[in-house]
Amino acid sequence: MRASFSPSGMAGQTAPACIGLGLATLIAAAWWPALPVATAYAFIALGATLATVDRFRGAAALRFLVVTHLFVYVSLYFLFVGAVCHAAISGAQNGLAFLQGFDFGVSAVVMAQVVRLSLAAVAGGGDAPAR
What we know:
Number of strands: 0
Helix content: over 70%
Shape: elongated
Number of helices: 4
Radius of gyration: 16 Å
Order of helices and strands: HHHH
Largest sheet: none
């Protein structure tokens, strides 16, 4: 079966919105460093996961694609978290601020959703309805 992209259900509406929200926040963080960059990246990962699962639903290579996708986005997420921690520790405040801790908490919840959606797609082979 050939993979084709036809936005369906919630994924077709939510994926671009999540990616746009995350990118806008990351761009704005260049001027306002206090913005939640880990959460912004987590929203990009959520949107990309929804789009990937929706696009390749029913394709033979879905499991391989989703596992690779999950590995890349989780690895990049940990790099973002590490960069924020490094900047906080080597910066003027010498430690994590409350907002950075809150950013990590919210982003962890969003990334847990990314992992849950990816594992559901791998376990179900993509035949499960979009969530």
